[in-house]
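Can anyone check this?
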Amino acid sequence: MKRVIALMTAILFVLGISVVSFAAETVKPATTATKAAEQKAAEKKVAEDKAAAEKKVAEDKAAAKKKVAEDKAAAEKKVAEDKAAAEKKAAPAKVKMVKGEVTAVDAKAKTITVKGKKGDVVVAVDDKMMAGVKAGDKVAVKYTEADGKNIAKSVKKAEVKPVEVEKKAEPAKPAEKK
């Protein structure tokens, strides 16, 4: 009986080892197939990431080109505006003159209105120019136009020439007789 039990134990032991080694061989090919599938999936993911990165780079290049074009256009526009402004400033302002009577003085707005030959002219003046001027004065105003406003360069009161009263010649007194 001991021999039968020993034999049975040996057979079970051999059978157990066979089953384990058979199971190990069956698992290995499955693991290799899984690894191959995982590797394919990883390669596919890398390819997708690479394509997405290339697409992003292309979009960034297009956006950069667009930005450069917009900046260039804005810079050209700014240069044109600056050039036009410089030409406008460089052109000397034409000095005009009006002679006439002051019809209004607006201290708050710092303007005087002069009635000249061609009509009324409103001129902006500074405090110093306005100091001696009042309505009714005869003046000569030199001014320039800037931004639609007349700006005084000088305001001079016209000198009132005194009217000489001619003395009537008194009749000559007869010479005294001696």
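Reply from J.R.: I decoded it. Strands lie at 96-106, 111-116, 119-124, 138-146, 149-157.
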